[in-house]
Specification:
The complex is a heterodimer of chains A (278) and B (347).
Chain A: H1 10-37, H2 41-50, H3 52-85, H4 91-103, H5 106-117, H6 124-130, H7 138-149, H8 151-164, H9 167-174, H10 179-208, H11 211-217, H12 227-236, H13 240-267, H14 269-273
Helix pairs in contact in A: 1-13, 2-13, 3-7, 3-8, 3-10, 5-7, 5-11, 7-10, 7-11, 8-10, 9-10, 10-13, 12-13
Chain B: E1 3-12, E2 15-25, E3 30-34, H1 41-49, E4 56-61, E5 64-65, E6 76-79, H2 91-100, H3 110-123, H4 139-152, E7 157-161, H5 169-186, E8 190-194, H6 197-203, E9 206-211, E10 214-219, H7 221-226, H8 231-237, E11 241-248, E12 251-254, E13 257-260, E14 268-274, E15 279-283, E16 289-299, E17 302-309, E18 312-319, E19 332-337, E20 341-344
Parallel strand pairs in B: 3-8, 3-9, 6-7, 7-8
Antiparallel strand pairs in B: 1-2, 1-4, 4-5, 9-10, 11-12, 11-14, 12-13, 14-20, 15-19, 16-17, 16-19, 17-18
The chains are: A mainly alpha (278), B alpha+beta (347).
């Protein structure tokens, strides 16, 4: 146990302040979401969820996450492995690029795809000639989501893999293991929990992303609206109960993510410690 | 199996890590690579393991080209400095790993693997620890698991990188003798890297001293210790006293003392090296160069005598129980090195 130092007078104030802020900014809105959703009873809560457009939005959100999260997991492992295992020129640049989506606005992350693949974009005419639709279609939503969630997995893995070093992999190789066996039996088990942790955060963001997908979606109800976009559409229609009912789905996803994340942190504190140092 | 290394060179960018190193190890020999950090000893070991590729040179094991073999086909047992045990596997699983990953045609069956693991657990005195994870073991136990894992594949050669580096002094001494016994029992040609001269001299059949990527000296421990090839080796192998001296003709002059120069001594300005515990001390009218005692302290059976020879302060060790009367602070004494080495002066 680390010794605890209390600053007399200051400690209670700081505690009170943080609890108040937490309550006002997080618990209160969360409560409002559920209160509004159930404002007109259970049947009024369930109806918007069974609406065909809402069902389509749920399916689309799951599809986009199902494509973009695994791709990001693979990219994250590959990028982290490259950064942690090799010294090369431009490594700092690569790290900065991985972090870039954290620092640019999601709207920009969406807009770049429109500029590239939209009707007026660089490849717009070419794609139109081939009959390929990227913007205002699922492909565009996946691209925008991948870009926004790019750092999540890699950022979890890089510090851990750097801390672990390459010795275990080297040992496996000298013991006669092939590259594939080494990767699947040594590398992957060693980063397993950090990888799951990263995928979890990545998934939460992928399903909840609004800005970037809003730009590329085109807002065709029942076709290109994901859950967050569907919520906005309902809200703009003054269907508050509907909007908040669907919003409870996203809020629940957030709560589940939080619980699993906390459980992981509690169970595998040592293995995740390295990645929490950044 | 006999190992032959021929003019091996390796550079990392501009920095040469190994410079034209050639050495051999006989079948079943225990060879120490001794050198300070940055001397290239670990690089040499990693080249043998297949973890690095040399820029030029040859390595033959049992007369066959070793460098062209893949890392897995080399079948060397490597013990890493920090053991590199698989942290998510138990002791059992760690030891069995090298056997389990073999292609189906070459893999022993489950029973044979279990038997081999049991045999190694016994040899390494690890019985009862087989279900533990590396994090639940002490440093010494981890080291033995690492060794068991390396031996499980019946290696053609055993490579140890600073095997005792991460252990405390007590465990280190115990494991040292024990490692030698394991080596003698298995008879595997062993190369081990260390920066600890005492360890190398105590344990190895032969010692190769490396400095700045080059081989400085190679020989049996007693030879290397008795006749260090360079001043660096002399310094590195143990505490050393150094005095400037001059060889003119067949006469050696150290401070105010002139004597017959040893045969084969370099001429002109030289550096005289001797061990601080290998001296004869006598009163001012005795043999040797004169020195003034600055401090005479007792440390166990031997005493530390600090004395000044002109500008140079020497720290000598001598038996001081009972302490001779002439060894008092401020006294003028004579110091006669029993054995010394002369090296050409660097400047």
């Amino acid at each position: 146990m680390k010794p605890v130092v209390r600053l007399p007078g200051v400690a209670p104030l700081l505690l009170l302040f943080s609890v108040t802020v937490l309550g006002l900014l997080i618990l209160l809105p969360l409560g409002v979401v559920f209160q509004q959703a159930f404002a007109k009873g259970l049947s009024a809560y369930i109806a918007p969820l069974l609406d065909p457009d809402a069902q389509a939005a749920i399916r689309l959100t799951l599809l986009v996450a199902a494509i973009s999260v695994p791709l990001n997991a693979i990219f994250g492992v590959a990028a982290a492995w490259t950064v942690a295992r090799f010294e090369f020129r431009g490594k700092t640049l690569l790290l900065a690029l991985i972090d870039l989506p954290f620092s640019i606005s999601p709207v920009v992350s969406g807009l770049v795809w429109v500029l590239l693949f939209g009707a007026e974009g660089w490849f717009g005419a070419m794609l139109q000639a081939w009959g390929v639709k990227i913007i205002f279609a699922t492909t565009g939503l996946v691209l925008a989501t991948i870009l926004v969630t790019l750092p999540f997995v890699a950022r979890e893995l890089i510090p851990l893999m750097q801390a672990q070093g390459a010795d275990e992999e080297a040992a496996a190789l000298t013991l006669g293991a092939s590259g594939f066996i080494t990767f699947f039996r040594v590398t992957l088990p060693n980063i397993k929990w950090a990888l799951i942790y990263g995928v979890l955060l990545c998934n939460a963001r992928a399903m909840g992303e609004f800005g970037a997908v809003s730009v590329v979606s085109g807002h065709i109800r029942g076709v290109t609206d994901t859950l967050p976009l569907h919520i906005e559409a309902l809200y703009n229609d003054y269907d508050f109960v509907g909007a908040f009912a669907v919003a409870t789905l996203l809020a629940s996803l957030g709560l589940v993510t939080l619980v699993v994340k906390t459980a992981l942190e509690w169970r595998f504190a040592d293995e995740l410690a390295a990645s929490r140092r950044h | 199996m006999p190992l032959e290394i021929k003019s091996l060179s390796k550079a990392f960018g501009q920095y040469p890590a190994l410079k034209d190193v050639s050495l051999t190890a006989a079948d079943g020999e225990f060879l120490a690579l001794l050198g300070p950090s940055g001397s290239g000893k670990t690089t040499l070991l990693r080249i043998l393991a297949g973890l690095e590729q040399p820029d030029s040179g040859e390595v033959l094991l049992n007369g066959e080209d070793f460098l062209s073999e893949s890392i897995g086909a080399r079948r060397v047992g490597m013990v890493f400095q920090h053991y590199a045990l698989f942290r998510h596997m138990t002791v059992d699983q760690n030891i069995a790993f090298g056997l389990k990953v073999r292609p189906a045609s070459a893999r022993p069956n489950r029973k044979a693997i279990a038997a081999r693991v049991d045999e190694l657990l016994t040899l390494m005195q690890l019985e009862g620890l087989n279900r533990r994870y590396p994090s639940q073991l002490s440093g010494g136990q981890r080291q033995r698991v690492a060794l068991a894992r390396a031996l499980a594949i019946e290696p053609r050669m055993l490579l140890l990188d600073e095997p005792f580096g991460a252990l405390d002094a007590q465990v280190r001494r115990e494991l040292r003798r024990w490692l030698r016994q394991v080596h003698d029992r298995t008879g595997v040609t062993t190369v081990f890297v260390t920066h600890d001269q005492e360890e190398a001299l105590d344990l190895a059949d032969r010692v190769a001293v490396l400095k700045d990527g080059a081989l400085v000296q190679m020989g049996e421990p007693h030879q290397v210790y008795a006749d260090p090839a360079t001043a660096f080796v002399y310094d590195f192998l143990g505490p050393a006293c150094r005095l400037s001296a001059v060889v003119a003709g067949d006469r050696l002059t150290v401070a105010d003392w002139t004597n017959a120069a040893p045969p084969g001594a370099p001429s002109g300005k030289v550096e005289l090296y001797f061990r601080p515990n290998d001296v004869s001390l006598s009163p001012a009218d005795g043999p040797g160069f004169s020195a003034k005692v600055l401090h005479a302290g007792v440390r166990g059976a031997s005493g530390k005598i600090e004395c000044a020879v002109g500008e140079v302060i020497l720290e000598l060790e001598a038996a001081v129980s009972p302490r001779p009367a002439f060894l008092s602070r401020g006294a003028d004494i004579r110091v006669l090195p029993n054995r010394c080495k002369l090296y050409p002066s660097a400047d």
